[in-house]
Amino acid sequence: MSSLTQSPAWLALQAHYEQTRHLHLRELFLHDPGRAERMSIEVCDMLLDYSKNRVTDQTLRQLIDLAKQENVPQRIAAMFSGEKINVTENRAVLHTALRNRANTPVYVDGEDVMPKVNAVLARIGNFCDRVRHGEWLGYTGQPITDIVNIGIGGSDLGPLMVCEALKPYGHPRLNMHFVSNVDGAQIVDVLRKCHTATTLFVIESKTFTTSETLTNAHTARNWFLRSSRDEKAIAKHFVAVSTNAKAVSEFGIDTNNMFEFWNWVGGRYSLWSAIGLPIALLLGKEHFQALQTGAHMMDQHFRNAPLEKNMPVIMALLGIWYGNFHGAASQVIAPYNQSLHRLPAYMQQLDMESNGKSIRLDGSRVDYQTSGVIWGETGINGQHAYFQMLHQGAQLIPIDFIASIENPSTLPDHHQILLANFFAQAEAFMRGKTEAEVRTELLAQGIEGEKAAKLLPHKVFEGNRPSNTLLLHRLDPKTLGALIALYEHKIFTQGVIWGINSFDQWGVELGKQLATTIHAELMNPLPAQHHDSSTNRLINYYKQRAKV
Ligand code: F6P
């Protein structure tokens, strides 16, 4: 048994769970009219209503005790101060410094990183202005019309999600494209829409060794050279964002066209760094700055608000309550906003790559669940797909409902319908529909007796299905920045409580290594024979039939 599961706060929560697990949210609301007001936090133009969770005031107090027991406030301070909390890589974790709009000094190894951060931001601003104002010209003298971001994971998902979310703020001349998949179908499709003379490629890779990204970057380079026939023209059409200047230069991109960031920025936390270049290109430096300002405001809240009123901490604790005590294995992200359609995918990497760990900081194995499965889709589409399971399935799956009061992309009458569904679903999950209510409904339809008795259990909704409701005042750069930072800090808080390192990702290495070996075998005429019988057979089956 780990010290966590044997700790006083954990054991007290376990006992409390046994006492409260049969409580129904419908009852809690019925007997407590002040519940919603008490269980709400408003910060950074965003309201979190967490009253539709299976908690009492006592539960919340005990969860806060757990956070205190696990030194959450001290760990927050350690992260912000530049302490090397990513111990397996011996790195500080300072995505917060990238958006430190207060510009207060932040030290890593005795050096204030803010001058470097500001210098890169200034270069980004300058470059983006030139592209956006039509002053950065391609090799035939024409302004840029299409930007192709080539990157994967954190070098794709953040910029892609934000560019989609804030499209209405985008420059009308610029079309954004994202290529992440090494499946050539994606880049072929994108290049079909672009012209060499007016396309700018942004090659994003923290390490500049990621095979998917480099393969796509080489394909883009060849495509470009086939038309331009001029190596020198590459400087006008290819820029790189990386921590690895040597590899960028070896690829053939002038390091004057490289935007730098640092190893204390994790890939999945990097959209605030130069990795946000596509965002700044599309939206302009002012909107990119506003995104950072929103995140900075959330940082301040996370650092300074008491745990009881701390939005990321409360969301983290609720997640722990369901995952570790109620046995929930997954969590749904349901944005009721088409512009946020890539948010669930972004959250998958942010959460599961951060907290999908089973070894504690001290090297011991956990005896409790860590990151659950994060999944989802725009809420309204989910309603017509998997919400059935959320309503009446056998598992408990908490949901985060996210919507904005104002949305510049939508049509007013559509928005009302969307929000009606948003409010209705959260209510339905909470209340459910009782046997008595179903019976009355059936009677009204003239269904009685045996027929009604048979139908009745199928039409009952247990309810008591928990959710958070996040209502943004509007979907704008500042609020989106705060929303992203909210989840970053939620995930960090959970990692602290679970005693794991949320900032490494050794788990993705094995697959990468094996793929490199197998790639060589696919090109070798001899059959593969060094793997297990299944892998050998599959590789050889493919090789016999492939027409590559
Ligand atoms: O999938 C692992 C990973 O290292 C992610 O953490 C990262 O965001 C992604 O690959 C891309 O890495 P890079 O930016 O170095 O190309």
UniProtKB/TrEMBL annotation:
Subcellular location: Cytoplasm
Biological process terms in GO annotation: gluconeogenesis; glucose 6-phosphate metabolic process; glycolytic process
Domain of life: Bacteria
Top EC class of this enzyme: isomerase
Active site: E353, H384, K512
GO terms, molecular function: carbohydrate derivative binding; glucose-6-phosphate isomerase activity; monosaccharide binding
Gene Ontology CC terms, in alphabetical order: cytosol
One Pfam family this sequence matches: PGI
Keyword Cytoplasm applies: yes
Reaction catalysis annotation: alpha-D-glucose 6-phosphate = beta-D-fructose 6-phosphate
Pathway in which this enzyme or protein is active: Carbohydrate biosynthesis; gluconeogenesis; Carbohydrate degradation; glycolysis; D-glyceraldehyde 3-phosphate and glycerone phosphate from D-glucose: step 2/4
Entry EC number(s): 5.3.1.9
Coiled coil: none
Claim: Phosphoprotein is one of the keywords in the record: no
InterPro entries: G6P_Isomerase, G6P_Isomerase_C, Phosphoglucose_isomerase_CS, SIS_dom_sf, SIS_PGI_1, SIS_PGI_2
Matching NCBIfam families: PRK00179.1
Reported function: Catalyzes the reversible isomerization of glucose-6-phosphate to fructose-6-phosphate.
Entry similarity comment: Belongs to the GPI family.
The protein's name in its UniProt record: Glucose-6-phosphate isomerase
Species: Chitinivorax tropicus
Gene this chain is encoded by: pgi
